[in-house]
Specification:
The protein is α/β, with parallel strands linked by helices and 412 residues long. Helices cover 48% and strands 15% of the residues. The strands form 2 sheets. A 7-stranded parallel β-sheet has the order 3-2-1-4-5-6-7, sandwiched between helices. Strands 10-9-8-11-12-13 form a 6-stranded parallel β-sheet, sandwiched between helices. Helix 12 links the parallel strand 9 and strand 10. The chain is globular, with a radius of gyration of 23 Å.
């Protein structure tokens, strides 16, 4: 197939959830199909990474998106009564490039990654459209609204409402819509009007052995509880703040020697301030997160805002680490309490679960088989083969439809 691939952020480097999935999909499809990639980059440094994708794509158009112009477009969207997300990812220049490509090339498929990129498609689309929503963003904005005060609560509620309409429109006009979990499928398609399929995430095998020697600075942190994530992303910031303020003090009362390590790039000022609390360590960007995973006693996912699959949980399970998670991210991966991981929602339950794990090597050992759970359910090759099959079906159905229409014209 010849595929037009639209994505809201350049899928390299694959260093966070949305970019990991986009990169894996791009690489898998590029192995057997021809890809033309159109995307944004958030910085010159990020745009310069496009050479890593040259062997995967016949053609690439990477547009650097300035933060000031993006915010101005959001303001325009506010005035027009449109979703702010669509304004943030809108560019007249990119729209022209996409329309020119569609006019010059006969694509077998248009693959859209992220609902905000659906705005670049002409209607009717000249080729079948597959949209990977990944997560249902409108539900995330609704969670933001519940945890915010006015006026931000009003703004987030507005975004949730308008994004729901935009997502419904995108699903209605696509040949098939893709999400990561059954829960997301029900959110996107509550009345069963659209064709929605679940294609799960995957986890790459860790690059180092669980028995590998830990670097000295990491070993000196032990024993420690670990959180991994992009630390300027609101759900992550909320999660670690919730943990430090409402959960960690109870754990330290029982285990005064334990630390809480927050590992991830771009920590906000609020996250940096957490490092002033007793036992809290904020690393900032690290060259490789796996040594931190290997050295941890417990990995935590204390999310109050969560949509879809949290890769950080899968990465911890893949190396046999015990995980304590709130309900929503655990349900997203079909985890079983007491078998896959421990589930706790209240601060008291969460603190008790972590303390129990810290105090019992036998209990921690029960979760060393998490790697098998990940291998069975979150294998990239298996899940992406399903994605490719869905794409090929959409392209074939369009060709058969065209052939049938041509035959009817000739018969007339």
């Amino acid at each position: 197939m010849k595929i037009l691939f639209l994505v809201h952020r350049i899928p390299y480097p694959p260093n966070k959830g949305e970019k990991i999935r986009a990169f894996q999909e791009l690489r898998f499809l590029a192995a057997r199909h021809t890809i033309d990639l159109f995307c944004f980059a958030d910085s010159t440094e990020e745009a310069d990474q496009q050479w890593h994708l040259r062997d995967l794509c016949r053609r690439m158009y990477v547009e650097k998106r300035g933060s000031i112009s993006a915010k101005l477009r959001m303001a325009q969207s506010l005035w027009r009564g449109a979703p702010l997300s669509n304004g943030y990812f809108y560019s007249a220049k990119l729209r022209t490039e996409v329309r020119n490509a569609l006019a010059a090339e006969r694509y077998d498929l248009i693959f859209v990654y992220c609902s905000s990129m659906a705005q670049y498609l002409p209607m009717p689309a000249p080729a079948p459209v597959v949209i990977d929503f990944v997560d249902v963003d409108s539900a995330k904005w609704a969670q933001y609204a519940r945890l915010s005060r006015f006026p931000m609560s009003w703004l987030y509620s507005r975004e949730a409402r308008l994004m729901t309409k935009a997502e419904e429109q995108a699903a209605r006009t696509s040949s098939v819509s893709i999400v990561t979990t059954r829960q997301e499928a029900l959110l996107l398609n509550p009345e069963g009007k659209h064709r929605v399929q679940v294609v799960g995430n995957g986890v790459a095998q860790p690059p180092i052995s669980i028995n590998a020697h830990l670097p000295g600075p990491i070993a000196k942190l032990q024993p420690y509880i670990l959180f991994v994530g992009q630390m300027d992303y609101r759900p992550n910031v909320d999660a670690v703040t919730f943990f430090v303020d409402e959960i960690f003090p109870s754990i330290r009362n029982k285990h005064p020697e334990v630390r809480f390590v927050i590992a991830g790039r771009n920590p906000t000022s609020d996250v940096k301030r957490l490092a002033k609390k007793p036992g809290v360590v904020v690393t900032g960007a690290v060259p490789d997160v796996h040594p931190y995973l290997m050295g941890s006693s417990v990995v935590v996912a204390p999310f109050r805002i969560s949509q879809g699959v949290q890769n950080k949980i899968l990465e911890a399970l893949a190396v046999g680490k015990p995980v304590v998670s709130t309900s929503r991210p655990a349900e997203a991966i079909d985890a079983v309490h007491g078998e896959t991981l421990l589930i706790a929602d209240s601060p008291e339950e969460f603190a008790q679960s972590v303390s129990d794990l810290l105090g019992s090597s036998e209990l921690r050992g029960r979760f060393e088989r998490g790697s098998e759970f990940v291998r069975q359910k979150f294998d990239w090759q298996t899940n992406l083969a399903r994605l490719e099959k869905l794409c090929e079906q959409c392209a074939r159905q369009r060709q058969e439809q065209k052939s049938g229409d041509s035959g009817r014209v000739e018969a007339n």
